[in-house]
Amino acid sequence: MLRYLLYEVLYTRYHEHFHPWLDPLNVFRYITFRTAYAAITALLVSLLLGGWFIRKLSEHQIGQPIREEGPALHQVKRGTPTMGGVLIILSVLVGTFLWGNLRNGYVWMALAALVLFGAIGFLDDYLKIVRRRSLGLTGRQKLLAQSAIGAAIGLTLIYGLDYSLVLSVPFFKRFRPELPAALYLTFMLLVIVGSSNAVNLTDGLDGLAISIAFITTAALTGFTYVTGHAEFARYLNIEHMPEVGELTVFCGALAGACLGFLWFNAPPAEVFMGDVGSLSLGGSIGTVAVMVKQELLLLLIGGIFVLEALSVMAQVFYFKLTRRMTGRGRRLLKMAPLHHHFELVGWKEPKIVFRFLIIAILFALLSLSTLKLR
Question: Does the predicted TM-score (pTM) go above 0.90?
């Protein structure tokens, strides 16, 4: 919005007549400038509205239920305001609307993913907390809704936008297979839905999911920028997609919103993001990774999210396997997801969060290094 008003309207139309007074407005055409201010805007929105929002959640008794089979120390968190993901979504929307190019189809796709995955999480939270339905949406209902959104995003990219079906494979310079549309669509679906659920599984400790989401989003911001930059893309031998560059502003807003929410979610948390936050963050991250053609690299960029999801899959598989073989199921971990295993081993919650965060930073740095390791 500001780009359109201050650059396209004021600067482009009237610069010739009011030079040099309008020269400073030229800065609004640069993605780097607008990305920085989208991040600052989203951060400020979160900080300014966070306290008021938390009070409203408390007034309406929207508190987090804690499952009995979880770690005993978590019972003290019962009743902590939740559904704070609404604040994250609002902050991203404000930052992107103010600083993004709203004529860009990729930006609208990212915003749609954020809102639609958030809507699934909102409904799930609403049923669990307000309607007192213990399980909220069933796993099948959530998966079907997520798959429908992922399929819509994939179909729009393939058939509605100028999207290449060539798969980008990390570490391999010349191996770039072109997949059939149906196969690529299935792959997109796995990435987007898998990312959404992986962030959801990670959201179990104060500050854990949101801090790792910030690191992941910050790394994706870099990939998005170089993908949309002709010289960088050519130098780094990655596919240049000019229209995708505008997604950098969305990623900046997402990173800023994560930092703003972390202010209130840091241990001990004043508010939880709920499924409305985790599903929207994960869905957005997966969607951006698909749009910038870094689907495979997302396994490394969001390495902690991947490990958390794999820990749940391994736990279920091992339990079913041992039950079939011995008649009695055994657990591979003390508890899944992985962060709960370390809790039961004896690690304190802040130690788990900070150690996972260090590993997340390492994953992000390794992913960025692949830009030259080709």
Answer: yes
